[in-house]
Model the fold of this input.
Amino acid sequence: MMDPAFFRAPDAPPDPAPRPGDTPAGLLDAPDAGRHPTRTQLWLHRISVFLFVLISAVAGVLLIILPWTPGWTDNYLLMSFPSLRSVVDNGFVRGICSGLGLLDIWIGFWEALHYHEPG
Done:
């Protein structure tokens, strides 16, 4: 999306700064500590944290398990590229993918453990 100031005439006065709730993602932003969030903002924040933790956990488990299954190297895409298949079949690459999965799970649970309600 282009900046509206880009299309404004050079001698036109600048637009006023938008308030925090006026931005498109304003409801999903974390509520400020200085003001009380609305019920909608609070629930949207809770749901976004829950979805982040859930997606992180699922992606992490897939990254841990998937590299060690036969489908990791015996698929249609890699059968067409034998040199890429040998790289993906390397234990070091599989270990890196599993390590990223562990990191992904750790980040998700860290976010869940450090979640706090404003106020």
